[in-house]
């Protein structure tokens, strides 16, 4: 939903949705830190919230850490690899995005 609001130009509503997603993602990690998908969702939510606020570069270390944690758990998961590649692409780190 945050993505829809963001594309409609309603950054306040988008941030509200991303903030909720971040809260639920943190809870999922707290419940079971061995779930790779929970770490991926946490990374994606954190990055999306940073993007809507215009400070995605500040989220760089956390997002990378969360995605790498997810890959430690499920190293062959294509969704996680795609999220990592997409993250590097958005950070204009094209060599790592490939």
Helix share bin: over 70%
Straight-line N-to-C gap = 28 Å
Shape: globular
**Percentage beta strand:** under 5%
CATH class: Mainly Alpha
Mean pLDDT: 89
Number of helices in the DSSP assignment: 6
**Most strands sheet:** none
Runs in which pLDDT lies below 50 for 5 or more consecutive residues are none
Listing every helix as H and every strand as E from the N terminus to the C terminus, the arrangement reads HHHHHH
Write the CATH architecture name. Answer: Alpha Horseshoe
Task: From the 3D structure, determine the CATH topology.
Answer: Serine Threonine Protein Phosphatase 5, Tetratricopeptide repeat
Could you give the count of β-strands? 0
Q: Considering the protein shown, what is the CATH homologous superfamily?
A: Tetratricopeptide repeat domain
Radius of gyration from the alpha-carbon trace, in angstroms = 13 Å
Structural class comes to mainly alpha
What brief labels describe this structure?
98 residues; mainly alpha; globular; Serine Threonine Protein Phosphatase 5, Tetratricopeptide repeat; single chain
Structure description:
By secondary structure, this protein is mainly alpha-helical. It has one domain (2-97): Serine Threonine Protein Phosphatase 5, Tetratricopeptide repeat, CATH 1.25.40.10. The protein has six helices and no strands. The protein has helices spanning 2-7, 11-31, 36-52, 60-73, 78-90, 94-97. The radius of gyration is 13 Å and the shape is globular.
């Amino acid at each position: 939903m945050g993505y829809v609001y963001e594309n409609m130009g309603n950054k306040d509503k988008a941030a509200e949705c991303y903030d909720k997603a971040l809260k639920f993602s943190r809870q999922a990690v707290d419940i079971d830190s061995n779930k790779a998908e929970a770490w991926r969702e946490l990374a994606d939510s954190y990055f999306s919230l940073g993007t809507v606020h215009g400070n995605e570069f500040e989220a760089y270390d956390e997002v990378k850490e969360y995605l790498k944690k997810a890959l430690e758990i499920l190293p062959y998961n294509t969704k996680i690899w795609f999220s990592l590649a997409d993250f590097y692409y958005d950070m204009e780190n094209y060599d790592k995005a490939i």
